[in-house]
Amino acid sequence: MRFPLASWSTLCLFIVFSCVGCEDDKPVVETNPFAGTQVTVSFPAGLGLEQNWELALAEWQKRTGAEVVLKPRSLDGDQSLIDAYGGNADSADLILFPVTGISDLGDAGWFPVITEQLRKPNQLNWNDLFKGLRDTIGARYGGPATVPISCPVLTCYYREDLLAAANLSPPRTWEEYQKLAETVDAWAGGLPVIEPWSEEFRSTMYLARAVSYVKHPDEYTTFFDIRSGEPQIDGPGFQRALKDSLKAVQAMPPEVMTYDTYDCRREFFAGRAAMAITFETGFENPLPVLVPANPRDSETVTPQPRAADIRIGFLRLPGSAEVYRRSKDVWEPGANEGVNYVTLSGFGGMTAVVSARSSELETAAAWNLFKFLTSLEQMATTFPPDTRTVCRTSQTSYPDLWLPEDMSAAEGGSYLGEVAGSLDNKAFVAALPVIGREQFRAALTTGLTTCLSNPESAEETLKTVATRWREIAEKLGVETLRDSYRRSLGLRPLANLE
Q: Pfam families, from UniProt (predicted)?
């Protein structure tokens, strides 16, 4: 049963988070501020969240007087995310769902903008989120809307000892990276460079390389034209990125065609690779199925010991020396000391919203519960390691919360610093942030798979993918797709102006 908005609810908004985490010597403004309020929480099933939350929920309910109802959702490939979460008729107050579904739920009007009051430092502390996350994954047209819990970003791991012995520097650009990959016999004793090119991950790996060639700092358009909705996947920047990707794969062992991020991390820490692209924990989740970064049953995976006497360094993914300026049809040098650094994320992870159907009091209670569950004091136990990544500046001070035991304190600090630099980057691109995302991603994966077995078809590959994207756009509605893309960039839908 839902209770109507009480006359004192406005007051509750000002003290909404004061009841949680109060110290004994501080005055308590309100006792049980949400007494009689029911908060329904929907979240992906099978991740261990329900069990992990048990004690925390009991404590929060006792402090606030509210009641929590949990509704785990099974995500599979046979239904849409909206159907999996029960549709509007069965919406929850607090909704945790895959980052890749933001456009699906957002375009359907499931969640509103988070008010300025709720974004304040003593509440959701919006500005504590890394800039790239809060401006891209967190915000849509209209303003801030979702709060990320996990949002992995690919990072370059390298053997610091081997590069130092050869008097070489870590790569700043993809060109420098490629030279290192092609000369491993000289500087790494033949240890390879590896990347995650499994079928499930190859579109993400390709796009992570492509965005620095494609995303010009003065232009919005990346995947689709923001005025027409026309696919850009066969443009000059994407074409160059594909050719460079093929060169990189050809310099790697054939096993990378089956490697996911877990494989790359395992091989690197075992001392069997000189450089690797991977990340620590998080999700790689092809919608609508939410799959952890390590898709294997944890009970069947034998932990691999770290190789002795290796020194490890971390680096944000390289950028490109040139970036294509679409509006002028020219290539221009990167503006950041000659390098165009662009971060790709939003290919996996989990985020939270509060339903547009919730009352003002229910909204306050739901965000209060979320803040409690994701606090630094609670997060180590409320969210299993595979369900959280660092998303906030304040979180980087606690490396033990995010990193495994096989990293030293210095390595952990270095890794988190590079991740922070990637996620704080204003040049930040979400991977295919539109409705129908999985259809576009599948078409790209099919094209890449064909091209990897027949590299001579590179140029025609992306033209074929672009044709397939147009067909998908036609079925979705070109204007609908265009405006979905615009909303994800914080732009007004053109349909509102026509």
A: SBP_bac_1
**Residues 238, 114 share a domain:** no
Beta bridge partners of 39: 68
Last residue of a domain, one of 332, 361, 388: 388
Q: Mapping DSSP to helix (H, G, I), strand (E, B) and coil, where does residue 345 land?
A: strand
Q: Angle at the Cα of 204 (from 203 to 209), degrees rounded to 5?
A: 100
Separation between Cα atoms, residue 353 and residue 52, nearest integer Å: 20
The two structure tokens encoding residue 485: 């893309």
Q: Are 180 and 275 in contact (CB under 8 A)?
A: yes
**pLDDT tens digits along 205-243:** 999 999 999 999 999 999 999 999 999 999 999 999 999
CB 293 within 8 A of CB 260: yes
Residue carrying structure tokens 């739920």 = 105
DSSP secondary structure letters along 141-186: TTEE--EEEE----EEEEEHHHHHHTT----SBHHHHHHHHHTHHH
In a domain, 61, yes or no: yes
Please return the burial class of 356, using the count of CB atoms within 10 Å of its CB with bins 0-12, 13-18 and 19+: middle
Q: DSSP characters for 224-246?
A: B-TTT--B-TTSHHHHHHHHHHH
Q: pTM of the prediction? A: 0.90
Which of the 8 DSSP states describes residue 322? E
Same domain, yes or no, for 89 and 198? no
What's the CATH number where 484 sits?
3.40.190.10
317 and 186 in one domain? yes
| pLDDT one-digit tens code per residue, 384-424 | 888 899 999 999 998 888 888 889 989 999 999 999 999 99
Q: For residue 400, what are the β-bridge partners?
A: none
Report residue 439 as tokens. 């259809």
* Any domain includes 394: no
Domain of residue 477: give its range.
155-346+427-489
Q: Cα dist. 295→39, 152, 234, 306, 394 in Å?
A: 31, 15, 31, 21, 29
Say which DSSP state 344 is in: E
Same domain for 433 and 333, yes or no, is yes
pLDDT at 299 exceeding the cut of 50: no
Choose the final residue of a domain: 334, 366, 388: 388
Residue 124 and residue 159 in one domain = no
User: Pairing mode, if any, of strands 147-150 and 143-144?
Assistant: unpaired
Please give the full DSSP string across 207-222, using - where no structure is assigned: HHHHHHHH--TT---S
Count of domains forming the chain: 2
